């Protein structure tokens, strides 16, 4: 694969990478930073990419590893300790029909990260179970199990589970993530 083809394929992958980054980060700016870092690492490590293999899976793996590396660093940080910024992110739904969608978005963010990640890879990003397993570094059966549990849990939450909490911040994060995923 020539350098020009590699770079062209990198540019073509940006919308999908942004959608996946948003599903992980839940924040547009952080997702854009993740994508930028992913592309920089991909260019720097271009020789480690095997031509003929799935470039998108390779890039998503880099992005995912970067996300977890940053997450470990952020655990030691205290951000918005007084909650002022978080309070400014809430938005009231403008239409009554919008309420069901906001509940779905809130429920999506309440899923455990491993389930949400598997569900987004399969459902929104269009990866096969095999590709998702490769990206996540696990077996196909594990991915299928995570997706199945995520779907069951979403259904429970959407059908009035008593432990469902409507979270405006989660709604905004999920809405941005899904909007980006649907625009790909």
From TrEMBL:
Membrane spanning residue stretches: none
Protein name: RNA polymerase sigma factor
Keywords, alphabetical: DNA-binding, Sigma factor, Transcription, Transcription regulation
Pfam family for this entry, one: Sigma70_r4_2
Stretches assigned to the RNA polymerase sigma factor 70 region 4 type domain: 104-154
Domain of life per record: Bacteria
Residue ranges annotated for the RNA polymerase sigma-70 region domain, each copy included: 15-76
Record flagged with keyword DNA-binding: yes
InterPro entries: RNA_pol_sigma-70-like, RNA_pol_sigma-70_dom, RNA_pol_sigma70_ECF_CS, RNA_pol_sigma70_r2, RNA_pol_sigma70_r4_t2, RNA_pol_sigma_r2, RNA_pol_sigma_r3/r4-like, WH-like_DNA-bd_sf
Entry's family note: Belongs to the sigma-70 factor family. ECF subfamily.
Coiled-coil residue spans: none
CDD domains in the cross-refs: Sigma70_r4
Keyword Transcription regulation: yes
């Amino acid at each position: 694969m020539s350098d020009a083809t590699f770079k062209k394929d990198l540019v073509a992958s940006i919308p999908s990478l942004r959608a996946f980054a948003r599903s992980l980060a839940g924040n547009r700016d952080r997702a854009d930073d993740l994508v930028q870092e992913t592309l920089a690492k991909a260019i720097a490590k271009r020789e480690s990419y095997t031509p003929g293999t799935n470039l998108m899976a390779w890039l998503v793996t880099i992005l995912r590893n970067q996300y977890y590396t940053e997450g470990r660093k952020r655990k030691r940080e205290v951000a918005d300790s007084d909650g002022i910024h978080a309070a400014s992110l809430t938005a009231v739904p403008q239409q009554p029909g919008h309420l069901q969608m906001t509940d779905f978005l809130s429920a999506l963010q309440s899923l455990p990260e491993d389930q949400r990640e598997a569900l987004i890879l399969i459902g929104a990003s269009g990866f096969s179970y095999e590709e998702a397993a490769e990206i996540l570094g696990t077996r196909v059966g594990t991915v299928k199990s995570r997706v199945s549990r995520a779907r069951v849990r979403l259904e429970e939450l959407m059908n009035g589970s008593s432990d469902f909490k409507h979270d405006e911040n989660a709604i905004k994060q999920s809405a941005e993530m899904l909007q980006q995923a649907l625009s790909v």
